[in-house]
């Protein structure tokens, strides 16, 4: 299944914070690109390790 997710990147002090609100996962980096790349890695790790129930709960609020 394919699902498009949102990435919100905001400046935070000297760096940037990236948030995926659908899954409530965040990461950070020194640049926008680094924050986005780190968020992608965090999302991949979450999706590889989380149970289907946890993923469904975060995506659908079930």
What's this, in brief?
With 62 residues, the chain is α+β, with helices and mostly antiparallel strands. It has helices at residues 32-49, 52-60, and strands at residues 8-12, 15-20, 25-29.
Structural class: alpha+beta
Ends distance? 18 Å
Estimated helix fraction: 40-55%
Number of strands: 3
Give the rounded overall mean pLDDT: 94
Given the structure, what is the number of helices? 2
Order of helices and strands: EEEHH
Oligomer: single chain
Biggest sheet, strands in spatial order?
Answer: 1-2-3
Low-confidence stretches at least 5 residues in length (pLDDT < 50)?
A: none
Query: In this structure, how is the largest beta sheet organized?
Result: 3 strands, antiparallel
Shape assignment:
elongated
The Cα radius of gyration reads: 12 Å
Please report which band the strand proportion falls in: under 5%, 5-15%, 15-25%, 25-35%, 35-45% or over 45%: 25-35%
What can you see in these coordinates?
This protein has 62 residues and is of the alpha+beta class. It contains 2 helices and 3 strands; from the N terminus they run βββαα. The protein has helices at 32-49, 52-60; strands at residues 8-12, 15-20, 25-29. It has a 3-stranded antiparallel beta sheet with strand order 1-2-3, with helices on one face. A hairpin with a 4-residue loop joins strand 2 (15-20) and strand 3. The two termini are 18 Å apart. 10% of the residues are buried.
């Amino acid at each position: 299944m394919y699902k498009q997710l949102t990435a919100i990147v905001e400046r935070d002090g000297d760096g940037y914070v990236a948030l995926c609100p659908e899954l409530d996962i965040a990461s950070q980096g020194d640049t926008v690109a680094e924050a986005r790349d780190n968020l992608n890695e965090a999302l991949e790790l979450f999706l590889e390790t989380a149970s289907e129930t946890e993923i469904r709960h975060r995506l659908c609020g079930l």
